[in-house]
Amino acid sequence: MSDFRMMLANLRRPRLLMHAARFGLGEYRRDRDLRRLVSSTASPEETLPRLLVVEEQLEETRLAGDASYSPARHIDVLIALLAEAQLLRRGGLA
């Protein structure tokens, strides 16, 4: 669990992306949103690594200036990352 905390703590993204992601946390619905991002609603321990891979790919696309980059999708993935990390800290699913 501390590995994910360290990875998220060391995640350096533009302030606007992170601000938008934190703003969107209140609207996050795991059952609705997670399935379209990583095609699974497994436990947070299994979901976080998948989300980190997707986010890293999006970040590489953003840094490359690729026209296929979607800021909206990047924000959605960041929202899911933050929300799943919160779930993990709280001890999983209720």
Biggest sheet overview: none
Radius of gyration: 13 Å
How far apart are the first and last residues' alpha carbons, in Å?
Answer: 18 Å
In round numbers, the mean pLDDT is 85
- Number of helix segments? 5
Sheet-strand content, in percent, reads under 5%
* Overall helicity: over 70%
Order of helices and strands: HHHHH
Count of domain modules: 1
Structural class: mainly alpha
Give the overall silhouette.
Answer: globular
User: Ranges with pLDDT <50 over ≥5 residues?
Assistant: none
Question: Count the strands?
Answer: 0
Structural commentary:
The mean pLDDT is 85. The chain has helices spanning 2-9, 15-24, 30-38, 44-64, 71-90. Helices cover 72% and strands 0% of the residues. The protein has 94 residues and is mostly helical. It has one domain. It contains 5 helices and no strands.
Give the topology, please.
Blueprint: H1 2-9, H2 15-24, H3 30-38, H4 44-64, H5 71-90
Helix pairs in contact: 2-5, 3-5, 4-5
